[in-house]
Write a structure and sequence with these properties.
The structure is a single chain. The protein has 206 residues and is mainly α. The chain contains eleven helices and no strands. The longest helix has 18 residues. It is globular and about 55 Å long. It starts with a helix and ends with a helix. The relative contact order is 0.08.
Length: 206
């Protein structure tokens, strides 16, 4: 968790392998995963290019038609770029396909994009409502995004107890991970709950 270098390296190797094999379906889905990872690492231009490539290969297989096309759209990238209308349309389609296909991870991906969108607009109550859905009944991998977001949103709307509980969960996960990204998120999240004098060093650490 929270090791963007390792994840990017593995996904890039997988993309190269699928290209050589001509496995277009696997290639399109892996390109989308790479796009989301690049966006999380701040490489937005590369993420956009990968997402477009994923849709192109999916189109060649006949997969990217109708609402299915939204499952191969980087909704989080749209949210980060402030394209709220497009992000909302895509996440609505993703949720509809999640129900139709019975794939709960599609819902979680949609909720993650919605959290980014609402957080960027200061709609903290909406973020606070969505975040627990993302982690309910899931493995830890979605907690890595939801917990720091839940902590921030909770503190913004006065839900300090819930934010403190989420911080305890994040501390266990981030400490186990030990990566700079994980520890930086932990420090930033802890700063939100800290006193003014204790917060500044934590912000600098993050």
């Amino acid at each position: 968790m929270w090791d963007d270098r390792v994840l990017l390296d593995r996904l890039q190797h997988a993309v190269e392998a699928y290209r050589e094999l001509g496995a277009l379906d696997s290639l399109s889905h892996t390109l989308l995963m790479l796009s989301m990872s690049e966006a999380a690492a701040g490489q937005l231009a590369a993420a956009h290019t990968r997402a477009e490539e994923a849709r192109r290969f999916a189109g060649a297989t006949g997969y990217a038609v109708g609402r299915l096309a939204s499952t191969l759209t980087n909704a989080k990238l749209l949210a980060w770029q402030g394209e709220d209308e497009a992000a909302q349309r895509v996440t609505d389609d993703m949720s509809a396909m999640a129900e139709y296909l019975g794939v709960e991870d599609l819902n979680r991906s949609a909720w993650q994009a919605q959290m980014i969108m609402h957080l960027g607009r200061g709609r903290y109550r909406e973020v606070y409502t969505i975040a627990p859905r993302t982690t309910a009944g899931d493995s830890a991998r979605h907690d890595t995004e939801a917990l720091p977001t839940l902590i921030e949103a909770g503190m913004r709307i006065g839900e300090r107890k819930a934010a403190a509980t989420a911080l305890q969960q994040l501390q266990v996960m981030a400490t186990a991970s030990g990566t700079p990204w994980a520890l930086g998120l932990l420090a930033r999240s802890a700063a939100l709950l800290a006193t003014d004098s204790a917060a500044e060093p934590l912000y600098q650490e993050s």
